[in-house]
């Protein structure tokens, strides 16, 4: 039946074409002959258009998916400030069970009711600076207990074969603890009589200069962009920054406790670690059983 219809259509077209005798009909025939190939070209154009539409739709879908993922991630971080990606250089294992927290800073400069410059403090604040006391020294000494950590197993994955090996443990330390050590070194220079310090020369001067510049780099690296408002002090007829700002901070106490739980004193109770290396140059001689403890004081440059 399909063949009959096709033959009928072909015969009808030839019959209609044979009676085209006028110029107008001839023009029509020429027009038909000119557009004869159109269906085939149209099909090719349609297929090409369809492919372009599919490709553009797929590309749009992919881009939309990526943008949606980024948007959802951004919203998630905005709604939950504690949910942040690791920095590539972080010792991630130290942060696994910790969350960022909001901290209201204290210790800022301000003017009292009679216009005198003072350092503000909050009730219950621990005093890290000022005239030295045994309690103040105890704060700084406690931080020093976490200066060197000894890692093994999965905790050592990111430092393995990148630092020295000591009695089966890889030695490292969180940089924030070293920065605190440097601040303490600088703090003590304000009170040479109390700490019986001689003028810094030679290695001691180099140590202090290193500490000052190291803290400078740390501050610039972290670049806290919390806005600091300005306030007017009628008592002194001056304006100045209001340092009573709230910052989103890492849990320093948590990081310190994590470090102390892995210092040489804690590892000594556990015994020799299970790490090893084929490179003898990475092995530090000695053992925990023979050591009184590792700290910055045992570094080659006098830390």
Low-confidence stretches are 1-23, 30-36, 73-79
Distance between the termini: 100 Å
How many distinct domains? 2
Radius of gyration: 38 Å
* Main sheet: strand order: 4-6-5
Average pLDDT: 81
**Helix coverage percent:** 40-55%
Q: Could you state the order of secondary-structure elements as H and E?
A: HHHEEEHEEEHHHEEEHH
Shape field = flat
Biggest sheet statistics: 3 strands, antiparallel
Number of helices: 9
Per DSSP, what share of the residues sits in E-state strands of 2 or more residues?
5-15%
Q: How would you describe this protein?
A:
This protein is mainly α. The chain folds into two domains: 2-79, no CATH class; 92-298, no CATH class. 45% of the residues lie in helices and 10% in strands. Helix 5 crosses helix 7 (202-222).
Task: Describe the protein's topology.
Blueprint: H1 2-18, H2 23-34, H3 38-79, E1 101-104, E2 109-111, E3 117-119, H4 134-144, E4 149-151, E5 165-166, E6 169-172, H5 175-188, H6 192-195, H7 202-222, E7 230-233, E8 238-241, E9 246-249, H8 252-260, H9 264-270
Antiparallel strand pairs: 1-9, 2-3, 4-6, 5-6, 7-8
Helix pairs in contact: 5-7
């Amino acid at each position: 039946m399909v063949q009959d219809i096709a033959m009928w259509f072909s015969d009808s077209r030839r019959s209609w074409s044979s009676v085209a005798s006028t110029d107008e009909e001839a023009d029509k025939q020429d027009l038909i002959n000119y557009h004869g190939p159109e269906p085939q070209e149209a099909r090719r154009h349609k297929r090409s258009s369809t492919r372009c539409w599919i490709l553009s739709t797929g590309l749009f879908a992919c881009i939309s998916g990526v943008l949606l993922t980024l948007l959802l991630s951004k919203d998630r971080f905005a709604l939950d400030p504690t949910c942040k990606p690791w920095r590539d250089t972080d010792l991630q294992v130290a942060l696994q069970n910790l969350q960022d927290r909001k901290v209201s800073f204290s210790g800022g400069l301000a003017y009292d009711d009679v216009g005198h410059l003072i350092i503000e403090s909050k009730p219950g604040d621990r005093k890290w600076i000022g005239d030295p006391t045994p309690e103040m020294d105890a704060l700084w000494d406690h931080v020093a207990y976490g200066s060197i950590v000894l890692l093994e197993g999965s905790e050592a994955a990111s430092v393995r074969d990148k630092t020295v090996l000591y009695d089966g443990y890889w030695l490292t330390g969180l940089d924030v603890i070293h920065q605190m050590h440097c601040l303490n070194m600088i703090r003590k220079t304000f009170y040479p009589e109390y700490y019986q310090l001689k003028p810094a020369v030679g290695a001691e001067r180099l140590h202090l200069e290193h500490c000052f510049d190291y803290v400078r780099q740390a501050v610039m690296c972290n670049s806290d962009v919390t806005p600091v408002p300005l306030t007017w002090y009628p008592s002194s007829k001056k304006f100045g920054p209001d340092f009573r700002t709230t910052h989103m901070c890492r849990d320093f106490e948590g990081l310190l406790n994590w470090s102390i739980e892995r210092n040489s004193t804690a590892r000594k109770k556990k015994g020799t670690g299970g790490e090893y290396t084929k490179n003898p140059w990475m092995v530090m001689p000695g053992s925990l059983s023979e050591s009184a403890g590792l700290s910055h004081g045992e570094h080659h440059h006098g830390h």
